[in-house]
Amino acid sequence: MEVAEPPVLDAAGYQALTGASDVQIADLARFQELLAEWNEVMNLVGPLTIATYWTRHALDSSQLLDLAPEANTWADLGAGAGLPGVVLAILLKGRAGAKVHLVESMAKRCRFLEVVAKDLDLPVQIHNARAEDLKLKVEIVTARACAPMTKLLGFAEPYLRSGATGLFLKGQDVATELSEAAKAWKFDAELRPSQSDPRGRIVQVKGLTRVR
């Protein structure tokens, strides 16, 4: 069975697909510039993915808002390159009460996030800390390319146990990851299709307890 190729978008195509405003497109384009600039000296994303930024990074991140359009408070675990957290913050900028917590344990990546947040005047709070050490009350906890599900659920446990819903961006091996995670955790999971890659999935997680 053939798998459809993901869409190849430029800024105009992304705007037509998502309905993003001109201001949001300008901010997203500026983020692309900063990501490319810092990627020259720091391993943030695969270099070849900069060319497919509007699909691989912008759309991949922003599709989460379609699943939680009313959510104002988010936590992005292992926020490193600002994906999906910075993209979400760009789209939430100007909304009353909106805040995205960018949680990143590596100090040098936090410096990148600080530069981006200041440049784009984003509603974010940056935490140079391990995700599982924080007690943040948020509506949505998310992550992309952070860790396999078993370990990721451990990082997200404080947030999920405080009532957050998990929206985790995963690739084609998600079923295997979930099977492994079920050995250590009890949780309710629903798989949603990815707009940016037909092989990818968004894992919606509610409720989390450790297997005794």
TrEMBL record:
Task: List where in the cell it is found.
Answer: Cytoplasm
What keywords is this UniProt entry annotated with? Answer: Cytoplasm, Methyltransferase, rRNA processing, S-adenosyl-L-methionine, Transferase
Q: What class of enzyme is it?
A: transferase
Q: Which InterPro entries match?
A: rRNA_ssu_MeTfrase_G, SAM-dependent_MTases_sf
Supply the EC number(s): 2.1.1.170
Q: Which Gene3D superfamilies match?
A: Vaccinia Virus protein VP39
Q: Which reaction does it catalyse?
A: guanosine(527) in 16S rRNA + S-adenosyl-L-methionine = N(7)-methylguanosine(527) in 16S rRNA + S-adenosyl-L-homocysteine
Chief site of localization: cytoplasm
Q: Which residues bind S-adenosyl-L-methionine?
A: G78, L83, A131, E132, R144
The UniProt record lists the keyword Methyltransferase: yes
Reported function: Specifically methylates the N7 position of guanine in position 527 of 16S rRNA.
Q: Which HAMAP family match?
A: 16SrRNA_methyltr_G (MF_00074)
Annotated PANTHER family: S-ADENOSYL-L-METHIONINE-DEPENDENT METHYLTRANSFERASES SUPERFAMILY PROTEIN (PTHR31760:SF0)
Classification via NCBIfam families: rsmG_gidB (TIGR00138)
Designated name of the protein: Ribosomal RNA small subunit methyltransferase G
Provenance organism: Caulobacter segnis
Report which gene this protein is encoded by. Answer: rsmG
